[in-house]
Design goal:
The protein folds into two domains: 11-126, Immunoglobulin-like (Sandwich); 209-438, no CATH class. It is 17% helix and 24% strand. By secondary structure, the protein is of the alpha+beta class. Bound molecules: zinc ion (ZN) (2 copies).
Length: 474
Amino acid sequence: MGKVGTEAEGVVREEWVEIELPSKIISAKWLKNTTEISTSKLNDKVKIAIETRGIINGKEVVVSILDASNSEVLKRPKIEINNSEGKVEIEIEKEWVHKELKIEITKDDNEGLNLVDGYIHTKTLKIICCEHAIEKGARGDLIREINIRLAGFGEGGCPLPHDTFDDRTESAVKQFQKDYMELDEVTGIICRDTLEALDQFKIDYNIPFNRCRCRCTTKGQTVTNAVDNSSETNNCQGFGDGSNRGRYLRRFTRVRKDEDGNTIYEADGKTPATERVVEYTTRNLGEPFYAYEYPGMHRSLMWGFRALCFYVEKNTTAFTFRDISSGYRCRNHDLFRSSKTTNHMGKALDIQFSHDGTPVTGQTRNRVRLMTELRDAIHKKLGIEPKSGWAPPANRLAFEPVGTDRGQTHSWLHLDVRTFSRANPSYLADEFFANTLDLVNGENLITLLNTVDGGDRKEINSCEMRFEKKKKNE
Ligand SMILES: [Zn+2]
Ligand SMILES: [Zn+2]
């Protein structure tokens, strides 16, 4: 431009500081306003152009590139101003990736170039590793899949099955990068390396899915429906049949007979299981009483199981996963018929372990001590609060309490998604339940990139994190 203004002195006007866009794009943001800009990939150049007016040729302006978090100067090139403008190309260096960079424009001396009102011109931008990198705030079907697959990570609570990359997702990504990928510097941002690592995680921690099948013993037989007392054939295929949607169990205690010989019942939630009689109501009594046979195992639960196995291996020396002793329990399962708890209708797993090679079984003090020790070694990583008993925080993975009382687990860990919301939003919608291992697992994320969200992110790059975790099965 080189307009000679009315001002006697030269100025650098903030709006004339601009970042030009090289051809290869990665995303970056001005943090002081929301204008999306893009900067180059590694080894490309960011151009800064400064125009001035009324300036004498040959003056220098200093452009400082600082690490915004600690003000360390990363680079400080000078721009010579000629004909009222100067330009500098700054190469994006590898060490800058994932940093927030602050660009400050200052003058080199006290003469000839005055900044507008003495204001130091700064812009902050964040260099992200690669094109299409996924960070907090992103949305879409791919994010939902990632949230499901990171279900067992995140100390403040596991990611929930929805389409938004939120705080929980970010915290889980960081934990996964640190603990599973074993990166020195975690980012909380997802690029190709992290997606590949999640695909590898699936291979490393297989799920014995057949062990999740309902083990009711009356398959094919005529039985009494334990919810509505009708007569039916038990057609259980292993993962529920969708029965009893909208039906809630009401528990009664048999108290006395009236003068006609009819048994009188009284509602009582604390009645021992053997004394319970159940009727159903369509009044919403809440998830603990919901008799609906969900159509499979909840995928977040099953991916949470993978994370549990990972942390048992990582955080303990003596314990190893042994078996899933109970997964799905339909209305004809003996334990449902006797306890009338609905938790295992797709929302819970009972998991057994060995200790120093010996199976942990039986109800003894020693077993309780071992299971407490195991729980305490892993619960925090899974985002589970162990002492919360029957009222854990909403929307978390949960354990049942360990102990020898009723409703406690003495030689296994019971992992569940019973506190996930069923409404607004629903984290217990049918779509999250799967009745085959393939459906639990889903396609490899790297493959999904081509189809999900219209293939928007299929060009996602590696950010050179160098994920080199030794693959378990090699
Ligand atoms: Zn069954
Ligand atoms: Zn259980």
